[in-house]
């Protein structure tokens, strides 16, 4: 393995937009080379005489670079950095940096000798549909044998298997005018709108502005196109209302003028820890100019895929922009731009060995011209050696290192098609062009709309900018039209050379003209069928260089015109987008926001494991020394509350502040029971129905004054209830004077539960004598707070609330005070057991399928007034007998454990769906009763207390008899909490 | 998709919560006859058109807590008009 840099043997002295004062060493397949700052990996390899850059997907054919842009189908490499592999990097996009280490793909053991190239010899058998036809039987072989083998043989690069730790970003931007592509049309459009004062975003995929001006270098206003573009770039940079985004590709067009764009921030540059790799932008534009240019297409002729075969436009870029002379060159062209390319190459000192054109072009040029001729074959196993040219005098073999194909231009209509618009076929340019309003607010300009001369592009760009500014109501400035070449463009399309042998259409997926013809012959004559049958256009390049050619071949094979054959659907993204960029920020803790209680740090310090409740983190239990597991802690905490006093933070409950002179009337409408009769200073349990008659949520309403209520919701339903109240108000009674404010985060609230609750309370405030379900505003430790005498444990209890910033202090104080009385903090496990013992409900029971009657609260739907859900709750099915009703569940053997989610059957019935009698919603180990207890729903359950059913949990292998009992296991009269 | 909020201007879809068809605004009268009532409630709760084209539905703009009725096209995604259910408060 050599480490000596190879000389840049194919550089043209003095030419190119590269910095020759900055040589850069890099590696490709373990060999060391040198290039210059400003190179891409592709241009640097070509400068070193390297044409072989990859192996094809299916046949493992040796391949070189075809293009100089993001549409590259062949030169896909893996870039290695610090143990990280990034596969399928297009060598044309990879900017050269010192130490770049790239590796070719899809070959073994080496790029020069690839064992799987045997596929190429088997190609007569590997035609389109081969897999579908061959690996049909025996059926069982597909998963175990065929698919693994095929997957290993085909495919592109591989991932390293190491997690990607790089940072990705997402960002949002808004503008008046989005200009996509900074060629001549885009530059002048952005300049015009920028001078008009509009907010402009100019997005360019390349690292520098200019587009084809950088490769073709026409004169504009008497100076080089490169210098003209630099001048515009400087002015744009000076305008504060213009944002220029280079190295950014617009990937998709969406509703409402929204565009996705992928910015390569650190990607393709030397690794820098402070830079994110990519940033995914969502840009919202009032108007858009699509000046994305056009993509040249190859010509399908036999063996048109050898390393050294490239597009004329790509070759021009390598010569003019990167000072590479990979020649001598044979140019095979069907149009005037190919002829102009041959002339330009000659001017730049590249030897044009032959110009081949099927048209009757004049033969007086500075290079040999073969008119009415075509290339019918090539030779050279790992790189082009000769091209066979068929002309009037026979077939000539011409030596060449490069074959430049110029099959015409396809306007980049992709983005215009993303909202299902169909482009129109233009006979004049033999290509698809955008039509008006394919994407609302977007207009195509320049080569993207089928205008190919520099002067035409500039005029079109100005026109598009003026139209956009008119729409926006902004006066367009008088930007003079620069002078530039205005050469006409004539083309006599030649899609495929009919000379036997294999002629490639889709290089990335190894699809030949024969495959497309076979598809048509076998009945896959619709373009969408052909695409799926042959896989044409389904590789990472999405068929950018092959779609129109394949369509033309299909049209011919099926005897239809091209416009009648149609075009495939272009979908986002325009270039591959990493999932990491789309999901930027969403990994690990970034996946969802974390909502923390004010006691969070103290609970963690006390060793409490946290459980997630929606976005909230709540303490599960507070372990003490000598406690073996959660169960021991839970038992102790439950008994502590029953005997002494416990403290827990209940701030996750939704709290809505409802105020206004009509508050009471409004609450009567959204709650099933009466809230208007509530006295000031009192709270009431409330049930809220959905309009379909089922229970939506429960909670308490506390009346702080005539016109001021504080209502609570369950943790999970806080947002839902807020939306629901706003809807009920705005949709049905907007005339009522009432307003809602979510104050969930405003108040820290703690439950003090247990026989000694009042003693703990007395340590923080002078509480008034509150009756059960009383509430008051008062000072707690000198802070304006609130107190509610409510209980979710069944014991004498209070909930105290203070502004959130005092929550941590209050929690610490309450826990200390409770501990002094034999109590302490309790967590969710104990809270759950306490409420099951009392038959109190959570969303485990209120699962959206139960009515008020089902849970035994039918009397809470007031007969005296209308409310949301009342009408529908009277529907026959909801009041019919045979509905499942809330019951308590006790294992017949107190040693048996039961589980939520289990189903209930008659003792002698098989556990089958049709025998179902009910199901279990909540369970817990009750230290009070000394056994597991549960809540559930059973058909006609309220009348069946005492019956024994079979509890079956197939998941956990549990099958135990349980007795149906009243759902209130503990203190059914409620004497303990009423006090 | 971007929806015009009368208070906040054009805002991205992500700020909105979908609230179902605008038919949801035609709540049956509370005091109707029982039999007619069942049919009316059934229609109100369950029977919805599923048009390919113009439709009217409800959206909640979370940041300003405004419920909107939006007239839009389910095929082209064009939005024709939006209005606040409660009218615009000034």
From TrEMBL, chain A:
Q: Which key words are in the record?
A: Oxidoreductase
Q: Which GO terms describe its molecular function?
A: sarcosine oxidase activity
Q: Which residue numbers delimit the GCVT N-terminal domain?
A: 604-865
What's any one GO cellular component for it?
A: cytosol
Which Pfam families does the entry link to?
FAD_oxidored, Fer2_4, GCV_T, GCV_T_C, SO_alpha_A3
Q: Where is the SoxA A3 domain?
A: 501-585
State which residue ranges cross the membrane: none
Sequence ranges assigned to domain Aminomethyltransferase C-terminal in this UniProt record: 885-971
Enumerate the Gene Ontology biological process terms. Answer: tetrahydrofolate metabolic process
Say which family it is in. Answer: Belongs to the GcvT family.
- Recorded protein name is Sarcosine oxidase subunit alpha
Which organism's genome codes for this protein? Pararhodobacter oceanensis
TrEMBL record, chain B:
Q: Which residues form a coiled coil?
A: none
An example molecular function term from Gene Ontology annotations: sarcosine oxidase activity
InterPro entries the record matches:
SoxD (IPR006279), SoxD_sf (IPR038561)
Identify the Gene3D superfamilies for this entry: Folate-binding superfamily
What are its GO biological-process terms? tetrahydrofolate metabolic process
Q: What is this protein called?
A: Sarcosine oxidase subunit delta
Q: Which organism is it from?
A: Pararhodobacter oceanensis
In the record, what lineage is assigned to the organism producing the protein?
Bacteria, Pseudomonadati, Pseudomonadota, Alphaproteobacteria, Rhodobacterales
């Amino acid at each position: 393995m050599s480490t000596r840099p190879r000389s840049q043997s194919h550089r043209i002295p003095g030419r190119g937009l590269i910095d020759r004062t900055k040589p850069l060493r890099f590696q490709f397949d373990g060999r060391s080379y040198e290039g210059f700052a400003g190179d891409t990996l592709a241009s640097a390899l070509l400068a070193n005489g390297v044409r072989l850059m990859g192996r094809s997907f299916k046949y493992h054919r040796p391949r070189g670079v075809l293009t100089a842009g993001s549409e590259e189908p062949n030169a896909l490499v893996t870039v290695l950095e610090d143990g990280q592999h990034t596969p399928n990097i297009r060598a044309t996009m990879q900017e050269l940096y010192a130490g770049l280490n790239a590796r070719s793909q899809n070959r073994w053991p080496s790029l020069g000798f690839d064992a799987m190239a045997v596929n190429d010899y088997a190609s007569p058998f590997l035609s389109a549909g081969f897999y579908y036809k061959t690996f049909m039987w025996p059926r069982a072989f597909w998963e175990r044998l065929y698919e693994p083998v095929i997957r290993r043989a085909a495919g592109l690069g591989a991932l390293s298997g190491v997690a990607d730790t790089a940072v990705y970003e997402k960002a949002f931007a808004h503008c008046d005018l989005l200009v996509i592509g900074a060629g001549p049309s885009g530059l002048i459009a952005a300049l015009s709108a920028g001078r008009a004062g509009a907010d402009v975003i100019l997005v360019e995929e390349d690292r520098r502005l200019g587009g084809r001006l950088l490769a073709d270098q026409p004169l504009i206003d008497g100076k080089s196109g490169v210098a003209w573009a630099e001048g515009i770039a400087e002015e744009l940079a000076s305008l504060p209302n213009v944002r220029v985004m280079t190295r950014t590709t617009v990937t998709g067009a969406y509703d409402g003028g929204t565009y996705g764009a992928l910015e390569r921030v650190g990607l393709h540059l030397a690794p820098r820890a402070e830079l994110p790799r990519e940033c995914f932008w969502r840009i919202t534009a009032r108007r858009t100019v699509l000046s994305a240019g056009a993509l040249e297409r190859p010509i399908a002729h036999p063996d048109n895929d050898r390393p050294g075969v490239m597009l004329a436009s790509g070759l021009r870029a390598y010569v003019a922009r990167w000072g590479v002379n990979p020649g001598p060159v044979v140019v095979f062209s069907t149009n005037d731009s190919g002829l102009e390319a041959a002339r330009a190459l000659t001017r730049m000192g590249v030897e044009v060995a032959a110009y081949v054109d099927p048209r009757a072009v004049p033969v007086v040029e500075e290079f040999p011209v073969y008119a009415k001729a075509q290339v019918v074959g090539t030779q050279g196993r790992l790189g082009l050696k000769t091209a066979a040219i068929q002309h009037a005098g026979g077939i000539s073999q011409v030596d060449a290192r490069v074959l430049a194909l110029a099959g015409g231009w396809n306007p980049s209509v992709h983005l215009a098609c993303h909202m299902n618009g169909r482009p129109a076929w233009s006979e004049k340019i033999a290509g698809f062009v955008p039509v008006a309003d394919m994407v609302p607010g977007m207009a195509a300009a320049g080569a993207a709309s089928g205008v190919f001369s520099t002067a035409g592009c500039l005029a079109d760009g100005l026109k598009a900018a003026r139209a956009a500014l008119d729409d926006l109501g902004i006066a367009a400035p008088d930007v003079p039209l620069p002078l530039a070449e205005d050469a006409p463009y004539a083309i006599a399309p030649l899609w495929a050379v009919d000379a036997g042998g294999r002629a490639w259409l889709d290089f990335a997926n190894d699809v030949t003209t024969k495959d497309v013809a076979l598809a048509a012959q076998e009945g896959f004559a619709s373009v969408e069928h052909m695409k799926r049958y042959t896989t044409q256009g389904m590789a990472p390049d999405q068929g950018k260089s092959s779609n129109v050619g394949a369509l033309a071949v299909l049209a011919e094979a099926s005897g239809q015109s091209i416009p009648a054959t149609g075009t495939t659907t272009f979908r986002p993204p325009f270039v591959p987008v990493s999932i990491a960029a789309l999901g930027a920020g969403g990994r690990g803790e970034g996946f969802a926001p974390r909502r923390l209680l004010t006691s969070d740090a103290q609970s963690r310090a006390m060793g409490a494991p946290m459980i997630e409740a929606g976005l909230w983190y709540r303490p599960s239990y507070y372990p003490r020394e000598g406690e073996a597991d959660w169960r021991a802690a839970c038992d102790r905490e439950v008994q502590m509350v029953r005997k002494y006093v416990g403290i827990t933070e209940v701030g996750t409950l939704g709290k809505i502040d409802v105020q206004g002179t009509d508050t009471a009337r409004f609450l009567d409408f959204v709650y099933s029971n009466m809230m208007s009769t509530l006295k000031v200073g009192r709270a009431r349990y409330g049930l809220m129905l959905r309009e379909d008659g089922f229970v939506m949520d429960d909670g308490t309403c506390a009346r702080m004054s005539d016109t001021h209520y504080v209502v609570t919701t369950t943790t999970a339903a806080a947002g839902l209830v807020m939306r629901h109240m706003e809807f009920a108000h705005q949709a049905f009674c907007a005339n009522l004077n009432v307003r809602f404010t979510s104050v969930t985060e405003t108040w820290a609230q703690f439950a003090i539960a247990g026989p000694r609750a009042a003693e703990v309370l007395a340590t923080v405030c002078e509480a008034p004598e509150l009756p059960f379900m009383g509430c008051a505003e008062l000072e707690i430790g000198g802070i304006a707070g609130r107190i509610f005498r409510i209980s979710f444990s069944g014991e004498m209890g209070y909930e105290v609330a203070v502004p959130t910033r005092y929550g941590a202090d209050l929690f610490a104080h309450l826990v200390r005070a409770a501990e002094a009385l034999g109590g302490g903090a309790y967590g969710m496990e104990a809270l759950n057991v306490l409420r099951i013992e009392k038959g109190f409900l959570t969303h485990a029971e209120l699962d959206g399928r139960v009515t008020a009657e089902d849970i035994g609260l039918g009397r809470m739907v007031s007969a005296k007034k209308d409310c949301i859900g009342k009408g529908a709750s009277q529907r026959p099915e909801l009041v019919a007998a045979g509905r499942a009703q809330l019951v308590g569940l006790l294992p017949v053997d107190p040693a048996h454990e039961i589980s939520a989610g289990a189903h209930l059957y008659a003792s002698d019935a098989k556990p089958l769906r049709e025998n179902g009698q009910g199901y279990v919603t909540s369970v817990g180990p009750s230290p009070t009763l000394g056994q597991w207890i549960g809540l559930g729903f059973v058909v006609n359950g309220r009348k069946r207390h005492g019956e024994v059913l079979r509890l079956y949990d197939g998941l956990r292998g549990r099958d135990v008899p349980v007795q149906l009992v009243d759902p209130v296991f503990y203190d059914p009269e409620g004497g303990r909490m009423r006090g | 998709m971007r929806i015009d909020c009368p208070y906040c201007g054009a805002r991205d879809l992500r700020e909105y919560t979908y609230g179902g068809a605008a038919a949801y605004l035609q709540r049956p009268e509370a005091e109707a006859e029982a039999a007619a009532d069942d049919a009316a409630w059934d229609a109100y709760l369950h029977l919805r058109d599923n048009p390919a084209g113009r439709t009217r539905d409800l959206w909640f703009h979370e940041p300003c807590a405004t419920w909107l009725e939006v007239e839009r096209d389910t095929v082209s995604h064009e939005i024709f008009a939006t209005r606040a259910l409660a009218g615009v408060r000034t």
